[in-house]
Design goal:
The complex is a heterodimer of chains A (227) and B (64). With 227 residues, chain A is of the alpha+beta class. Chain A is built from five helices and eight strands. In chain A, helix 3 (169-178) runs antiparallel to helix 4 and helix 4 (188-210) crosses helix 5. Chain B is mainly alpha-helical and 64 residues long. The chains are: A alpha+beta (227), B mainly alpha (64). Strand 1 of chain A pairs parallel with strand 1 of chain B, so a sheet runs across the interface.
Chain lengths: 227, 64
């Protein structure tokens, strides 16, 4: 199951789609940078709204932080992961309409290092997929001053690929490991690659559906090269 | 160590339970529904807690 849309098979019930989506995240995390994490989902069958995160219940939809640690080791950081799934226009498949991943230094989620947001239909002018960093940038502060703005680094929304080419949770996991911030299970690279390939394949299919002319053109180029 | 299943727990909630969850989130954030919706519309949340709260409230806010 993939992160862009939970409807790989048309006959899956909404519950099955939600379960597959959440299980996929647990599998990714528990085979890379966490141990024993179980992601859950809460579904409103009438509307098709579905919340995905750690330790959700029917009356508590705020995800609990995920400890970034292997086994019983003390965590160096915490991950906040939340997804919103909603019905597609045909009313059959759950699709990912909102996601946020954040890295925090504390379990109370008071000290954030970085977060990524994806909102399929934002109600503001900022990019639907964007990254925000905690910290200061003297250059951005001065740039803001020249424009008469208060543009501290933390207020800026850096665009990261838009709806179709946005980053995935796999990218954040990879970032944390290769930068040496967290330890990872042996073979984590294969797990990241496996899940990311599934996500990219789904995004590619969506891109083709959105622009079949460009897809045909590319396929014709492939045919020409093969002849 | 006991292996932990990756199989997710899925709960089906009623509209009333969702309302309860949203009220709980708003209470913990100290913001009203309208205030949080207004912050989302501007893209400027007064706190990171408010930003995370929006992820709970957004599906319902978009319908209203």
């Amino acid at each position: 199951m993939v992160r862009g849309c939970a409807g790989g098979q048309e006959r899956l019930t909404l519950e099955a789609q939600a379960r597959a989506f959440a299980s996929d995240i647990s599998h990714l995390l528990n085979n890379t940078v966490t141990s024993g994490v179980r992601i859950s989902a809460v579904l409103n069958r009438d509307t098709g709204d579905c919340w995905v995160g750690r330790n959700l219940t029917r009356t508590n939809l705020a995800p609990a932080p995920v400890s970034l640690s292997l086994g019983r080791k003390a965590p160096r950081a915490y991950l906040f992961v939340a997804h919103i799934l909603q019905l597609d226009p045909e009313g059959r498949h759950l699709m990912n309409t909102q996601a946020t991943f954040g890295v925090y230094l504390d379990e109370d989620l008071e000290e954030m290092a970085v977060h990524y947001d994806y909102i399929r239909t934002p109600s503001n002018p900022y990019p639907e997929a964007h990254l925000q960093l905690s910290g200061d940038s003297p250059a951005f502060t001065r740039l803001g001053e020249r424009a008469g703005l208060e543009s501290t680094l933390g207020r800026l929304h850096f665009p990261v690929g838009g709806r179709r080419y946005r980053p995935s949770l796999e990218d954040l996991v990879e970032f944390l490991v290769v930068e040496g911030f967290v330890e990872a299970h042996e073979g984590w690279e294969d797990v990241v690659r496996f899940h990311r390939d599934k996500f990219h394949e789904l995004q590619l299919k969506a891109a083709v559906r959105r622009n079949p002319g460009a897809a045909r053109e590319a396929l014709e180029d492939v045919d020409d090269e093969e002849q | 160590m006991t292996p932990v299943s990756n199989d997710a727990d899925v709960q089906v909630a009623t509209a009333e339970e969702i309302d309860t969850a949203i009220k709980r989130t708003l209470d913990e954030t100290g913001l009203s529904f309208t205030e949080l919706k207004s912050q989302a519309a501007s893209g400027r949340f007064t706190s990171d807690r408010a930003r995370r709260a929006w992820f709970v409230v957004a599906p319902v806010a978009r319908r209203g």
